[in-house]
Amino acid sequence: MREEYDLFILLALRASFSASAASEADWALLNGRTIMAQMMDIPVNDIAPLVQVHDYSIYLFGASVTIAFVLMLSLILFILKKWRSRHISERTRAYKALESIDLKQAAYRISEIGRVFAHDNERTHKAYHNLFERLEPYKYAPAVEPIDQETLGYYRLYLEIIDV
């Protein structure tokens, strides 16, 4: 209906105008408007339909969480390993105590701490047994004399034999 109306107006205007240059410009303007109106009614067929886009975000999130978990676990295990390796062993602690004994009242302490290393091997066992026998006279007496040089020599030898 709209096309017929536009065509009717175009014909009426064409008949009323003379063949001058100005009327040709008006005619082209009206004709262009009509063509534009006809183009608006044409359906657009060149737009592609919607395409499904694959979403990988859940996989990326899962991989990121897994990697973060593994890194955190590795870091925690590394820190625990370093902390445990800094921990002083009982043998090292006993050796340092044995080394730092005051030799005036030392017979009981040497016998007690030396027992930790006595069963390491045959050599340390014999050295401990020999030192233990040499320390006997300095133990169970009310008045104790200072430890003699020979017993101190056995004590120093025992310290050198110990493997910490």
**Helix- and strand-based class?**
mainly alpha
| Beta-strand percent range | under 5%
Tertiary shape: rod-shaped
Tell how many strands the DSSP assignment holds: 0
Mean pLDDT value: 77
The portion of residues assigned to helices is 55-70%
Question: Which regions are unreliable across 5 or more consecutive residues at pLDDT < 50?
Answer: none
How would you characterize the largest beta sheet? none
What does this structure look like?
There is one protein chain. By secondary structure, the chain is mostly helical. Among the domains are: 2-40; 90-161, no CATH class. The protein is built from seven helices and no strands. The longest helix is centred in the middle third of the chain and has 30 residues, at 57-86. The mean pLDDT is 77.
Question: What is the topological layout?
Answer:
Elements: H1 2-16, H2 21-40, H3 57-86, H4 90-99, H5 107-114, H6 122-135, H7 149-161
Helix pairs in contact: 1-2, 4-5, 5-6, 6-7
Produce a short descriptive summary.
The chain is mainly alpha-helical and about 160 residues long. The chain has helices at about 1-15, 20-40, 55-85, 90-100, 105-115, 120-135, 150-160. The mean pLDDT is about 75.
Q: Which structural traits does this protein have?
A:
7 helices; mainly alpha; single chain
